[in-house]
Amino acid sequence: MKTKKKYSRVTLQEVAEHAGVSRATASLAVRNSQNISKATRNKVLKSMTELGYVYDRIAANLRSQRSSTIGLIITDIANPFFSELLIGVHHALEKHGYTVVLGTTFDLDAKQDKLLSTMLEHRVGGVILCPVSDSLKETIERIKQWDIPIVHAVRELPDVSCDYVGIDYKIGAQMAVGHLIRKGHRRIAFLGGSSESSAWQERKKGYCTALQQVGLQIDEALVIENAVTREGGKKALQQVLNDPNPPTAAFCFNDLVAFGVMQGLRDRGLVPSEDMAVVGLDDVQEASISNPPLTTVSSFARLIGTYAADLLHQRIVDPLRERQRMILQPELVVRDSS
């Protein structure tokens, strides 16, 4: 009597031999690592398809000893924007049974690097990273080499192919500056942030585009970099008020900077809105109850957190899926500060 042939699962070693690569290379291809070329990855994927290889994620998780813990790295928990983003991340990941571990960099690359290393050592299942403004090249190279799912949120790192969620900062800045122009302002400052940040660079593009569209020249003396905090806003304001021809309006990197600018105006006996129009970006909860209520551009922090969490979950479940880049469209919220 003939015995029924037992079904044998295709192994990763067989895939590697079929593709003519090492098992280690095949493993990197399966995990969507950036350490191999696209051509090699495609060759391995073709062999997987032809042999009928099925990726066993449960076994892979057991081998890697990764848990259902997810790391979230943000720049400043004191910024209410990130508090909202955290809520979105937490609610989305909780539905999938993940636990969130929070780390704060205070926008310092050294702290970001240490947090990433610590999370890797603890074998987290993935990381949602809000990169610091001036991430060093060495840190970027390490992130590219780490075999762990990472989603970027709010800011993108150059030359790092990861899933990303953010808003269209250029359009948001155009909305803000365009609003000020329609109000009759011609000397408009851009205050706060660091030019090392991709988010700042996109805001600067929007700021310049809005001015150029109506034939206004860009005065770099009105573009002041500073910390994205209330204190940073106050310091940036002091610089532009010392200009022989000070601005009549300010577009601020975010709402915290805008709050600092309005406080700085009051400290000098000036009235926000009357003596200088102020517009922020983020639309944090405090914006609607500030004095005066702040005109701002909504960047949907909670939604960014939700989408980033969903993308990370999808990446963990299916490491071979195509890279996703989600850009949300901002909305201008007009209040009394402008």
TrEMBL record:
Keywords: DNA-binding, Transcription, Transcription regulation. InterPro entries: HTH_LacI, Lambda_DNA-bd_dom_sf, Peripla_BP/Lac1_sug-bd_dom, Peripla_BP_I. SMART domains: HTH_LACI. GO terms for molecular function: DNA-binding transcription factor activity; transcription cis-regulatory region binding. Pfam families: LacI (PF00356), Peripla_BP_1 (PF00532). It comes from the Bacteria. Residues 10-64 form the HTH lacI-type domain. This is LacI family transcriptional regulator. It comes from Bacillus taeanensis.
